[in-house]
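Cross-check.
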Amino acid sequence: MVFLPDESRSLPPPAIVNRASVWLGLTGWLAALLDNGFNRRPILRAGVHRQVLFVTVGWFAGYYLTKRMEYMHAKVDRELFEYVRQHPEDFKPADKRRIGELLEDFYPVR
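Predicted model, tokenized:
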């Protein structure tokens, strides 16, 4: 299975700063800090190059996971809209009703 098929190229790219990128970038940074702590090195000052590498790997993993997620959601949306278009008898437009017809009468209790 291909991670991102060719038809995903027609979608707009996700933002560089998105939720998955930030979370996986922070997770990568915490992994580097835990590695320093487990190996009894100074937690923040040792292996800064490794910390930057782990953050970068996590960031790009989050970016591509977001891209795949958006592709999967677009694919499901396309299938659902195609089904609705092919079966209009199952999806009739609802009658327009006023808000007063939807709500019950209000009688305050005193």
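The mean pLDDT is 93. The helical segments are 19-38, 48-86, 99-102. Passed to J.P. for a second look.
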